[in-house]
Amino acid sequence: MSKAAELAALIGSQTALSNRNLIINGSQIIAQRATSATGKTASGYYTCDRWQQLISSAGTWTFSQDTSVPSGEGFAYSYKWDCTTSDGSLASGDYLIHRQNIEGQNLQQLSYGVSGAKSVTLSFWVKSNKTGTYVCELRKGDDAKHIGRTYSISSANTWEYKTVTFTGDTASALVNTNATGIKVHFWLAAGSSYTSGTLPASWASNTAANQAVGQTVNLADSTSNEWLITGVQLEVGEQATPFEHRSFGDELAACQRYFTKSYNQGTAVATATAVGAVYKVMDAAMNYGTENVVFPCSMRATPTVGIYSPVTGALGKFDSNTSGGTTDLNLITVNIGDNGFSGQSNNQAVGGNAYMRWHYTASAEL
Question: From residue 192, how far is each of 54, 91, 211, 357 by CA, in Å?
């Protein structure tokens, strides 16, 4: 598409020039937890922020923030699934899904539940050695309703641009809270429990048998398999517009609503390092240490907080100079809220003129 045609399409769609993309970290530039994670067989958040991997008995995986990207599109990173232990015979309930959940209060412009409910278009760049048909699904946060579309990867190991459009739901509204409004699912493998029905072309009651109908690819069937994605955009309207590149700072701030940490951005969680650690010095009158932490921004909800030793990286531990720098001590978190928390030594005297130090993570993912 020429630049003039892109501009005409954008103006014609009556879509805002900024804040179009309902997806956070669609360009995969933020990876606070780690840039790679190996040996994964269960669901979780592993590398690039906001993207969750759903795994049910379908191989073993390495996930990474990869540098393979489509040429000339302005991307530096993609999200990569790499199969390290295969499963060539899926059981009926097995699946692989790449997912992002979106807050309901960020989706009210879709006007679901009324006659003017708006369509949305999902666009993305994708590459895999596995050609064939894949399924994209939108699902309501309460899993009551869903809608699906298919796309095909035609050329192996080649970046391809895809767009799929989903009609609006005129029958039922989205929650207007910080809970999940819509789940965006990229199916990568599906057992027969999810493929034996009919893929819903419009919003319909959620039935497991209809969720991934048409998914011909089992990405887990060979250790040669990989799947990469970047440039993910979900926007109002039936026309895909050019990807909205946000600054690193803006994207990081959006991600920190759901996950934040004390480590430097380039340092993986559980690394043994004192750089960036919370640090508290006690005077001679204090035998027990307490320190308050303020998050970079208000989190989506009260988070789950993890404490890590800066000496060993051990979870649930802190270090003090009275331990000689070699022994991890127990630490508890108290008064946790969406803006911060307090950490204190757990009945562990650290003595006067001492220090305590530790790292933290806080997760309020949907």
Answer: 17, 8, 10, 51
Q: Identify whether the C-beta of residue 246 lies closer than 8 Å to the C-beta of residue 322.
A: no
Distance CA 50, CA 223 (A): 26
**Counts for the chain of helices (H) and strands (E), in that order:** 2, 20
DSSP secondary structure letters along 184-211: EEEEEEE-GGGTSS---SS-EE--GGGT
> What whole-number distance in Å separates Cα of residue 151 and Cα of residue 120?
16
327/305 Cα distance (integer angstroms): 22
pLDDT digits (tens, 9 = 90+) for 138-172: 999 999 999 999 999 999 999 999 999 999 999 99
Q: How many domains does one find in the chain?
A: 2
Residues 227, 36, 215, CA angle at the centre, nearest 5°? 20
N-term to C-term CA, the chain: 36
Residues of the chain with pLDDT under 70: 1-16, 282-289, 322-327, 346-353
**Using one digit for the tens of pLDDT, what is the confidence trace for 292-308?**
899 999 999 999 999 99
Contacts of 11 (CB under 8 A, 6+ apart): none
Question: 200 with 321, same domain?
Answer: no
Cβ-based neighbours of 244, under 8 Å, separated by 6 or more: 18, 19, 20, 21, 233
- Residue 21 domain boundaries: 3-248
pLDDT at 126: 99
